[in-house]
Fold each of these.
Amino acid sequence: MPSSKRSSRSSPSPVARCRFLVTSSRRVSGARAAQFGPQGHRRAPPIGTSTLRRENSPVARIFITGSTDGLGRAAAGVLISEGHDVVLHARTLQRAAALSGLAPDASGVVIGDLSSAAETRELADQVNEIGRMDAVIHNAGVFLEPSRSTTADGHPKTLAVNTLAPYLLTALIDRPDRLIYLSSGLHHAGAGSLRDIDWTGRQWNATQAYAESKLQVTALALTLARAWPDVLSNAVDPGWVPTKMGGPAATGDLELGYLTQTWLAVSNDAAATVSGGYWYHRRRQAPAAEARDPAFQDQLMDRLAALTGVALF
Ligand SMILES: NC(=O)c1ccc[n+]([C@@H]2O[C@H](COP(=O)([O-])OP(=O)(O)OC[C@H]3O[C@@H](n4cnc5c(N)ncnc54)[C@H](OP(=O)(O)O)[C@@H]3O)[C@@H](O)[C@H]2O)c1
């Protein structure tokens, strides 16, 4: 029933049909807001009201960070087409324009730059205002930052977007049933980051910073699997795929790159309803030893709590 959700709505303008755009304290001009539909804080329909879900996919509402492009956008598209309630995310209101093809059938669009702790906190508020998510896909990421390029909070952008933001959102968004974190095969090269997680004592190395951030987010996923037995928490390596980040030379299959995270988010298959996995193309792989190490996980959580001022546990 991929198209039934779309066809069941009758509003003439596809863009104006977006149920709501949440911008928290940031105001949107009338013309801008009209692009997306009613502005403000309309409540989303209660979880479980959709009758369009696939039988093996009972999860109703999914928030996907970084859904303006690449894997996040593709994952959002497939979940919406399956009848799920998807909350989209754009870095800025301007970037939300890229969601015009998806927003009409989405449950909401939230805005916030993940390189800013303040905006990330505000983003969590926007998500919570919509209601509790069944699943969150922590997808947004940056790759090779040419320099340490300090954020407003004084951190390298790679650390801020790839590690601190998913950590903060995990702590501040009402706890969902399922959590999925986008990792990378490069995380295997990210060991030893706790000696200088903030890159204050080393010469900047963009590839190493990315690898470390992906090891950290993998460790976060596995920590949560250990600490929260009632939540399914997993990490996914999408492979090297042709997105803005992956570039046109990428040899991986884009569709296989996003179907693991959508499956983990909504499927009721026994294979998908597990926790603590590191996945590649719907198969469990062995993550780096450090990501699995409870001592490393605990130290990492302490460091992230200190860097963000928010304790997850
Ligand atoms: N592509 C690959 O080969 C590959 C391989 C391994 C892992 N991954 C991982 O898969 C995930 C998705 O990658 P992708 O290839 O789809 O990347 P992409 O095409 O570059 O898309 C990244 C998404 O994240 C958003 N984003 C980046 N910085 C942000 C910020 N500061 N605030 C808010 N949103 C921000 C982007 O927003 P804008 O559109 O505004 O830039 C975009 O929506 C990433 O975590 C990445 O590390 C990708």
Note: The pocket of NAP is lined by residues 66, 68-72, 91, 95, 113-115, 139-142, 161, 182, 184, 238, 240-241, 243-246, 250 (CB under 6 Å).
Amino acid sequence: MARAFLLLMCCALSLMSNPVTEKIWATNLAFYDYLSANGVDSSILADLDDETFGALRTILAQTPYYEHRDEESGALLHALIPIGDERQISVYYDGERYQVDIIPVRYFVVTETLNAALENSLQYDLSQITGNGKLSSELTSIFEAKIDFRRDLHKNDRVGVIYDRKIRLGRTWGAPIVRSALIETRKRRLYAIYRAEDESYYDETGKTLANLFLKYPTQFHKISSGYLPNGRVHPLLGVIRPHLGVDFAAPKGTPVISVADGVVRFRGCQKSCNHGYGKLVIVEHKNGWESRYAHLNGFASSLAPGSRVKQGQTVGFVGQSGVATGSHLHFEVRKGGQTTDPMALRDVRQNGLNGRQLERFLADAKSALATLDYLADSPESGVTRITAARLSKSGATN
Ligand SMILES: [Zn+2]
């Protein structure tokens, strides 16, 4: 009995003196340097396949990670360093040498509901309720084609969300997965229901929510250059320059349309019509998006800075103004001033469900819609857990 007690004491003590510590990955710390700082021979990286080796370079600055060290020597026994929400690097000492693996992050998931009446802003209010800004970021990207978050939301507008929260080592982990959501503005309810088959959100009638942009701004016969942010040899200048848009080769005079509703911010030539973009139109859209149409031959006659354009409205005509080889449209999309690959934006040509797909979707969406309406009608703001915790993947947590 006494011996058992002593044994328990010893283990409790050794657990206490042998803790796993949480650390923060320093900005600009390379994995290679982390290994050498811990006396780990980097030859262990030689056996890794290309994918694993590539993953070692994707550790984000300020990522929290875990270390387990020998209590006497301080030597590293085990480190777990996340790369994204789903995977982590495991470095461990197997008694003879160090090993490196990429393994899944195991976490628990609970389904929760949130309901709120807006007081300040979606971002602020949801951060107050959930403890971080991730749920409001998810909602912003789901609804951004439907709602201008800078203008359309007002005090006492309502929000209802059903989402999966990930929990790792007792704390919220990564971004939540929104199952369905409702935003009520000016007494109008907008719904988003997640459909797992295509990982997309639809409204309560089965129409897609992702229709901010049309895919193509003009009729073209080929894409002569894609989005190459890291550079290509410039066809006229012969130097390596990034290509921050997509080039559509098309005959001179082909109409160019705005890919989304917006306001014309610029119409003209920046330095001169023989430089850079040549004749250029910049259209500003909801939520910090803008689109640019360059090397135009001319502009649509109705177009003036400050005028509103509808999705699909002609803004100009394909040409060869500025620095351009051949007649083509240079098309650029930016968000918050940063360029992004226009071809990676979601396509709206397939903009809704129909037939059997629609029937099944509507049947599946019923209970979520009822829950969302209930959330929007309930007077208090808050979070309610509606399922027990379940493990993300089979096996033990780590
Ligand atoms: Zn171009």
Note: The first strand starts at residue 20 and ends at 24.
